[in-house]
Each structure stands twice: as structure tokens, then as C-alpha cells.
Amino acid sequence: MDFLTHSGLSVAVFLPVVGAALIVFTPKERERTVQILSLLFTFLPLLIGILLLSPYHIGMTGMQLETNRSWIPSIGARYHVGVDGISLPLLELTFLVTFLCAIYSMKWLPEPRNAKGLLSLMLLLETGMAGTFISLDLVLFFIFWELVLVPMYFMIGLWGGPRREYAAIKFFLYTLFGSVFMLLGFLALYFRSTPHTFDILQLQQIGGSLPAGIQNLIFLGMGIGFAIKVPMWPFHTWLPDAHVEAPTAGSVILAGILLKLGTYGFYRFNLPMFPKASADESFFFAGTNHQFGVRSVMIFLAIVSIIYGALAAMYFVVKKDGDVKKLVAYSSVSSMGIVMLGLFALNPNGINGAVMQMVSHGIYSGALFLLVGIIYERRHTRKVSEFGGLSHVMPGYAAVFLAMAMTAIGLPLLAVFISEFLAMRGAFEANPSWAGWAGLGIILNAGYMLWLYQRMFFGEIENEKNKLLPDLSPREWAYMLPLVIMSLWIGIYPGPFLRYIEKPVNAIVKQIRPSYQIPGQPQTTNAPARAAK
Fold it and tell me: What's phi and psi for 291, nearest 5 deg?
């Protein structure tokens, strides 16, 4: 237990690097050994991650399982890691999704194959993503954040589709552009702190004392970096290209985990560090009464992302040569817009829903990209018009696709229902019109997903190439069933998941809005003052 408490996080995060190193020194022709190593070194972090749930105390606020040691004394950077009820579920999701991708890669490897290169990059990517969620030092966070960029660039650029070079460069440039602004924001925080520190927990206490104009400025710089990663409209254009050209495992990791780094950044940095900016509805830097400020801009961009993403996804159902993968990519833009709407509702329901949506989206989007990969390996096409009547020859595949499609549209008893319900309730509490506009996007989401399912699985089989397609194999069931089970578990019994996130969410709401009364908590009174009176 002491090992898990003091070193479990670090071991789980860096084990994939050990696996990547072993793969690098494995002869290229021993492909099966490379695949087994990738499976082992994605399973071990998942196992440790599950064991870490035991020493974690759900009822406590603040960080747990912390390690805080001197790292670069000359600049004051420390190796400071830990988790709370928000980062722990996302960390577990990272380990699960990467492990399922390793199972997928036991058979299907994109051209030019080279399991050694692809799987070692996937392991490095896992360390970068997991490290981002546990970092409590700005320098450490930035290193893990940038570590994610390099493996994904090569996964898209070397193992991607026909336009892989374009997609990889676009992904790299967009993310690098955002990282520059984010780094400037980090440095501004460092030099504004007294004494100078990179410690995230200390900066969360210091940031609120900064002048409103400074908060708005740093919020904007860091917000650009996080908004690109989410991605929010109009910073979203790299995502469809990256998804379409990436290999299946890359798309699953990109949608399931990578996008959450942006929303997690808003939660961990922008909201608690800049409470005045987060709640401000007056114009940037101006002391006017115009109801158009940081929060208003974020809500506007979130609503546009929800509706635009849904309309764009619907277009690829109608389009004659519409690509299923691009449809799922645009649906991610819409879903992540719901996360941002919930975050900036700035109330417990909204933020609880946003965090739950991060997890739910990671489950169903990862599953949908795996399903698209399965049918692509059989038919070598992703055009909606190429399919029809698949339920006759692939009933198991049709059933799993239906479960994930229903999850995506928020059917009750499946994961997205509770997350969207909470996010929309939080938005309605903040401003009913926000929920109204977002509701339009959710209706559109249901429309295109049901239309897609009807075109792919109902009716007669008209294409001769579809008549002999095999159904899901045992290995494919092995990596699809955990995601179906997770969707059902969260949808039917979300209580355990909400218990992890409620305490830290309540704490951040009180930090941003000290006068806000958390439902279920006793009202703060001024009894001593009344007694003295």
C-alpha cells in the first residue's frame, strides 16, 4: 500500500516508456514479440491504475497520492505529481483506451506495418497523456503536453492515409501554435507569483489576486492553447483531417484521450487560476457594462461548436461519398462543445456534467473509431454509400454499433445521458437560452446518428462485396465489450463516478464564486455578527 501511495502514479505513467525502450531493442522481424510487449506494458499501467483506487479517499478534497521532490532547483521546477477526483478518472480512461488499442494492434497494423515503430510510439504517447493528467508543476506539465505531440505526428505522418503528410503537419502546426501562447501564459504566471513558483496548486491560490485585466490576458493566452486541443470552433479544422488520415489506433487515442487534454487544461488552470476572468461578462480589459466578456465568448464558442459540429456530421450522412470516420470526427467537435458549455456554466451541475462527458465521450468515440476500423479492414472503404443491410451478415457488429450510436445520442441508461443531462441542467441554471441553443445541437446529433445507422445496417444488401463479411471475432469482442460495459455501467449507476468528482467540483465552484450556495450544503450565515448586534 505504501508503494501505491508514494510511487504508484509515477510507476504507472513511466512503465510504457520502459516498454517502448524494450521494443526499440527488439529485432524488427520479431513482430509478435513486439506486439506482446506492447500488450504487457499497456496492461500493467491499467492494473496499477485500478489498484490506485484503493488508497484514494473519495470523501477528501485536494490532491492525493502526491510525490513532490526537487527537480530543477535553478528555476524552482519540481517533480510534483498527484491526482484528484477529476484527473483520476481521466487517468484510468487513458490506461484503458491504450490497452484496448494494443489488443486491436495484435492483428491489424496499417501499412507499412512496422509494428516496432508504431507500437513504441503508442507507448510514448500513453506516457505523455497520463503524465499530463498527474502533473502539478507547470514545467512538468508542459513537457508531458509537448511529448504527446511528437508520437502522434509520426503516427499520422508515417502510418496514415493518402493525405497523411498534410494532416500530420497541420496537426503539428496548430498544436505548436497553441503551445506557444500557453507557454507565454505559464511564464507570466511564474513572474507574477511572489515568490516565483511553477507549482500549480500555489498558483491556483495566487491567480485570483491578480488584477482583472491581467487575468483576462493570461486566460486568453492559455485558453488559445487549450481551445485548439479541445478543439473548439474555429480552431477545429485540424481535427477532421487528423482523424481521417490517422491509423485506427491513432484515431481512437486522439478522440478518446487527446481531446480531453484541452478541456482538462481549462478545468485545472483557467477556471481556478483566473476566477475573475472566468466569471467576467464585461468586455476584455474594459471597465464597461457590456455583457460580452471572457465567459460570454467561451459560451458562444461552445454553442457554435455544438451546432456546427452536428451540422457538419449530418452533411457526411447526406453526401454521396460521405466518410463515416469524418462524421465521427465532427461529432467529437459537437460533443466537446457540450463539455465547454458545462464548464463555463460555473455551477456544480454544469461542471459535473462536463467531467462526466469527458469520460463518456472517451468511451463512445473510441468505440466508434474502433468499429470504423473493423469495417475498413474488411472492405477498405469508409463511404456510407458502400454499405447497407450489414445487420444481416454482421449481427454482432450491428448490435455493438447500435449500443455506441445510442450512447452518442444520449439514450437513457447509457453513459452520455447522465453527462448531457447534468451539463444541460447546469447551463439552464446559468442561462436558459444557453441550454436552448445547445439542445438544438443535441437534437441534430440524434438525427445524423440514427440516419447513419439506418443507411449502414437496415434494408437489403445491394453491394455484393458485403454479402460474405465476417462478424466480430473473439479478439474484436475482447476490445469492444469493455467499452459497451462501461457505457452501461455509467448510464445505469453513475453514482460511483459522480462521488469521485463532486468534491473537487464543489471546491472549484466555491473558489470561482465564493457566494454561490452549493446545493445540499448548509448555508453560510453571519451568526456572530447578528449576535453582537
Answer: -80, 65
Q: Which of 163, 141, 122 is nearest to 251 (CA)?
A: 122
Q: Helices 212-229 & 164-192, crossing angle to 10 degrees?
A: 160
What is the rounded distance in angstroms from the CA atom of residue 439 to the CA atom of residue 61? 33
8 A C-beta contact, residue 21 and residue 132 = no
**C-alpha cell of 454?**
439506418
CA distances from 317 to 396, 418, 522 (A): 23, 27, 51
Residue 304 C-alpha cell reads as: 457554435
How many CB atoms lie under 10 A from the CB of residue 428? 18
What pLDDT, in 10s, does the model give residues 171-208?
999 999 999 999 999 999 888 888 888 999 998 888 77
pTM of the predicted protein model: 0.92
List the beta bridge partners of residue 64: 83
* Amino acid found at 144: F
Please name which of 323, 341, 101 lies closest in space to residue 230, comparing C-alpha atoms: 341
User: Are the C-beta atoms of 458 and 389 separated by less than 8 Å?
Assistant: yes
Amino acid, res. 213: G
DSSP assignment string, 152-181: HHHHHHHHS-TTHHHHHHHHHHHHHHHHHH
With residue 483 as reference, give the H or E element that holds it. Answer: helix 474-492
Following CA atoms 260, 261, 266, 267 in sequence, which dihedral angle do they give, to the nearest 10 degrees?
A: 70
Task: Give the sign of the dihedral formed by CA 407, CA 413, CA 419, CA 421.
Answer: positive
Spatial separation of the C-alpha atoms in residues 508 and 268, rounded to whole Å = 9
For 63-82, the pLDDT digits (tens) are 999 899 999 898 889 999 99
What are the pLDDT digits (tens) for 403-427?
999 999 999 999 999 999 999 999 9
Alpha-helical regions (H) of 26-137: 31-51, 87-104, 115-134
Q: Which amino acid is at 488?
A: L
> What is the CB neighbour count within 10 angstroms for residue 518?
17
Strands (E), 192-284: none
**Which cell numbers hold the place of 410?**
444520449
